[in-house]
């Protein structure tokens, strides 16, 4: 499969999840509630990094651009429009990063839909989240999700060391807006500038990988009673759940 077809295939998978949710008000509401809950969880898990000067912006980028209930349909549509040109004109490492990002997006949306179908109500609390996580299962896909997240971050970190990339992004600002690609342009510039400002993302990404894997492991092994017993959770990864 060509790079362009691979990227577009992932974007079509995301669009398919959106269509599936649009056909069911209950599923749409549950997905939004789930995403909101996961955004709150992320804010708790990385409260220490959010409070730092060095890692705060990167943590907020993950929180606002990759997590949460925000509808990225417009950005995805703009993204799909430029894929053929991107694959034709940009270096392979950038194309590979875009492909990994699209794959992560598709996988995360599929897992969110699967979890949302396990929710009994449009509200999410700790016990409901743990139950839905365990019912959805697929530990291998959860590991892939974490690995892709870290991989995309590592690629962005490498790209920030290339001054030509930032210069090219700056030169694209006017043409992108004129072509109706302003949201995609904003996302790319924000991601690039955020990772560049960290002056090295190795520690940040290692922290993300370690904490996400610890939480995933705890979620799979948790006893549901533990999920509602606040006193047992303080010193465990499950204590990060709202």
Give the overall shape, derived from the CA principal axes.
Answer: globular
First-residue to last-residue Cα separation:
42 Å
Q: What is the H/E string? A: HHHHHHHHHHHH
Nearest-angstrom radius of gyration? 18 Å
> How many strands?
0
- Mean pLDDT equals 87
Describe, in plain words, how this protein is organized in 3D.
- The chain contains twelve helices and no strands.
- The protein has 242 residues and is an all-alpha fold.
- It has one domain.
Give the topology, please.
Elements (H helix, E strand, L loop, with lengths): L2 H20 L2 H21 L1 H4 L5 H11 L6 H17 L2 H25 L9 H11 L2 H21 L3 H16 L3 H16 L4 H20 L2 H5 L14
Helix pairs in contact: 1-2, 1-5, 1-6, 2-6, 4-10, 5-10, 6-7, 6-8, 8-10, 8-11, 9-10
Summarize it.
This protein has helices spanning 3-22, 25-45, 47-50, 56-66, 73-89, 92-116, 126-136, 139-159, 163-178, 182-197, 202-221, 224-228. The chain is mostly helical and 242 residues long. It has one domain.
Search tags:
242 residues; mainly alpha; 12 helices; 77% helix; globular
């Amino acid at each position: 499969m060509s790079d362009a077809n691979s990227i577009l295939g992932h974007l079509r998978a995301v669009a398919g999840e959106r269509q599936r949710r649009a056909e069911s008000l209950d599923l749409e509401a549950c997905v939004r509630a789930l995403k909101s809950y996961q955004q709150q969880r992320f804010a708790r898990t990385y409260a220490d990094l959010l409070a730092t000067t060095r890692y705060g912006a990167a943590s907020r980028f993950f929180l606002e651009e990759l997590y949460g209930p925000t509808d990225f349909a417009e950005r995805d549509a703009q993204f799909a429009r430029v894929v053929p040109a991107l694959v034709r004109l940009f270096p392979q490492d950038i194309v590979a990063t875009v492909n990994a990002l699209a794959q992560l997006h598709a996988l995360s949306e599929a897992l969110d839909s699967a979890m949302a179908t396990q929710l009994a109500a449009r509200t999410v609390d700790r016990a409901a989240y743990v139950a839905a996580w365990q019912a959805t299962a697929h530990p291998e896909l959860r590991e892939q999700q974490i690995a892709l997240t870290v991989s995309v971050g590592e690629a962005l970190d490498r790209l920030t060391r290339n001054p030509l990339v930032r210069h090219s992004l700056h030169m694209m600002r006017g043409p992108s807006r004129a072509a109706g690609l302003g949201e995609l342009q904003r996302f790319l510039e924000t991601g690039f500038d955020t990772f560049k400002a960290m002056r090295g993302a190795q520690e940040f990404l290692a922290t993300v990988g370690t904490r996400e894997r610890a939480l995933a492991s705890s979620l799979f092994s948790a006893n549901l009673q533990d999920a509602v017993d606040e006193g047992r959770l303080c010193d465990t990864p499950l204590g990060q759940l709202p």
